Amino acid sequence: MNIKNNKQSFHFAFDANEANVLNRVGSNVYAFEILKQLHASTKKRTDLKWTVLLAQPPVKDFPKENNSWKYKIVTPRKFWTQWALPLHLFKNKRKYDLLYTPGHYAPRFSSVPYISSIMDLAFLKFPDQFTGIDAFQLKNWTKYSAESAEKIITISEFSKKEINQIYDLSLEKIKVAYPAVSLTDKYSNLRWKRFIKKNSIKPNEYFLYLGTIQPRKNLEKLIETFEVFSRGFAARKLKSSQTKNIKVKQHPQLVIAGKTGWLAETILERIQESPFKKHIILTGFVDDSLKKPLYENAQASLLIGLYEGFGIPPLESLAAGTAAIVSNNSSLPEAVGEAGILVDPENAQDIANAMKKTWNMPKLRKQVLKRKTKKHLKNFTWKKTGQVVLETLLTTAKELRKNGN
What is the C-alpha separation between 343 and 195, in angstroms, rounded? Predict the structure, then answer.
């Protein structure tokens, strides 16, 4: 523990490996945005020092070092969390007041008290949808992190209640720091045109799923739903074609944009078996510069997973002015509020009906969506996320110092 005078200055260690990747998704984005917010606090908080601990050099978009913010490469990289990090903390236990790790994997035998983030408990709810080693590590390590941490930071009230119930932690020990939207307005129109040409995407004529391709995202049901919608669309198109002077759009597409994740083989096979497979587009990973136009040109986005700790994609969709169709379970009603469209994720016809409502949405309904979205998005900013994390760190550090730890 770092014993200091009455000025109440603090030195925090930050395990930033979760953020130290190039192609960020989910928890990587969350960790990186928190990193940026904490770095921004150094401009006003001269009473705080930060040492950012990494297994390898920081990627190029990490914030620059300053007098209060330093990077430390801790070696060896192999067995980093189990060996290198605990050893570093032991050697520097009088230097750091508190460690923050924005992931489930906290160090074993930490000589420095720590705060850990837990995104959700999907690995307990759907263990068969994780690889064996991942399920084992998440189950055992998350339990250890939850029970050993001074505080837990999570991403929704839903996750807070789950962590409270499963690990029997007090609600006071669990803080909610909501994720936010990271869409950038700076994108190349030429690059966007190349992207849609490469992937044969028809602007304004597709539904969008943006996220990792993995079983708990319920993508096989999404494909089934697209088939139900497509059959209905084909019937409506045939009927409309028999009426003169009515312009009918081409067949809609389902764009699945994201990297291939755990146990994705059955999903990819299901796409190949679909009678509408030529209308299902797989783009692979999409970087941040293309996300906004991808949302803006969709008729609606869909996230009909069986379980979500929060759900950033539908929030991004709403921010881009596009309807978001989401499951009526877990944290998703909390994530979209009144601005989203809730569906039964097990019912393909219910989801298809929501898709039908959003296809060529009337202008008045779009205006209502815009008003609801504007009000809802005020609850979610990365600045607020960073404030919750920083306040939790400061409050905990002060409590520890008061108790002589």
Answer: 31
Which backbone phi and psi does 284 adopt, to 5 degrees?
A: 80, -170
Strand partners, 154: 176
The answer to whether residues 222 and 156 belong to one domain is no
pLDDT per position as a tens digit, 56-83: 999 999 999 999 999 999 999 988 998 9
Tell whether the model's pLDDT for residue 241 goes beyond 70. Answer: no
The predicted structure's pLDDT at residue 245: 45
Q: In the structure encoding, which two tokens stand for residue 314, read together?
A: 């539908």
Q: Are residues 331 and 392 in the same domain?
A: no
Q: Are residues 139 and 168 in the same domain?
A: yes
Asked whether residue 39 falls in the same domain as residue 117, the answer is yes
Q: pTM of the predicted model, to two decimals?
A: 0.87
Model pLDDT for residues 300-342, shown as the tens digit of each residue: 999 999 999 998 899 999 999 999 999 999 999 999 999 999 9
Average pLDDT score over the chain: 91
Q: Is residue 276 part of a domain?
A: yes
